[in-house]
Structures are given as C-alpha cells and as structure tokens.
Design goal:
Elements: H1 2-26, E1 32-38, E2 51-52, E3 60-66, E4 75-79, E5 90-91, E6 97-100, E7 110-116, E8 125-132
Antiparallel strand pairs: 1-8, 2-7, 3-6, 3-8, 4-5, 4-7
C-alpha cells in the first residue's frame, strides 16, 4: 500500500516537472539599461546598449527611468542590428513596464530599444530606460 502511494506521488511529480521548467524558462531574461538622445520629429535616436533575447517569448518589455514630460508621448520598440523593427511601438512611461506582444526576435540574438519622439514633436530629448527582448 505504501509503495503504491509513493509511486503515485513520484508519478505526479514527474508529470508536473515539465510545467515547472517551462515557467522558469518563460520568466528568464535580463534587463538592459539604455540612454538615448532622441531627435525631433520622430528621427532616429542614438543606439544604446543591446539586450540578448533568452526565451521564445513573443513579448518585449520596456520601462522608463528618465522620461521627460512631453506634449506627445515618447515611444519605443525592439529593433535588430539592421534597425528593422522586431516589435510594435509602446509608450515609454516612467516607472511602469509596458510590453509589446508581437516580438518577432529570435532567441540568442541581440536587440536594441529604438526610442523616438513623436513626428509632431519639434524638440529633442534624452531618455534613459531599461528593456528586455523577453517578457519581464
């Protein structure tokens, strides 16, 4: 009887292990801090530091550290080393994580946060934010 109970407990543990592992992998990823100088009218920003995508997540995460108050929001997206968009733009907000849910980046590759002023904004800006090419 005792052997049957232990066998069932072991079997349940073995069945749950893949789910626990998947949860750990999905939560992986690192933050990268980036400081960028933004041009007016939505022009290309300077390139900050890259982040390596560590999971298969379709999310990219962005959190503003220093975001000047503007009439129009500053937006940020994920780009590859050829400056091609790998996610949609989200608004960069101070101390709040925003996620783009259409990240097409590939695992183990470097990606950058592409921050931009609005096309109607005639002022330059400097922003500091942290981002991840994964769900954070």
């Amino acid at each position: 009887m005792k052997h049957k109970v232990l066998s069932k407990v072991a079997l349940c543990g073995m069945l749950l292990l893949p789910f626990a592992s998947a949860a750990v992998v999905q939560a992986a990823g690192t933050w990268t801090i980036s400081v960028e100088d933004l041009k007016p009218y939505g022009g290309w920003s300077t390139w900050g530091n890259p982040n390596v995508k560590q999971t298969q997540s379709r999310y990219a995460s962005f959190n503003g550290d220093v975001v000047p108050k503007r009439e129009y929001p500053i937006r940020v997206r994920l780009i590859n080393n050829k400056a091609q968009g790998r996610s949609s733009y989200v608004e960069l907000i101070r101390d709040k994580t925003k996620r783009a849910n259409d990240n097409t980046g590939l695992r183990d590759r470097k990606y950058w946060g592409d921050a931009r002023t609005d096309k109607r904004d005639s002022h330059s800006a400097r922003v500091k934010f942290h981002f991840s090419a994964d769900y954070k």
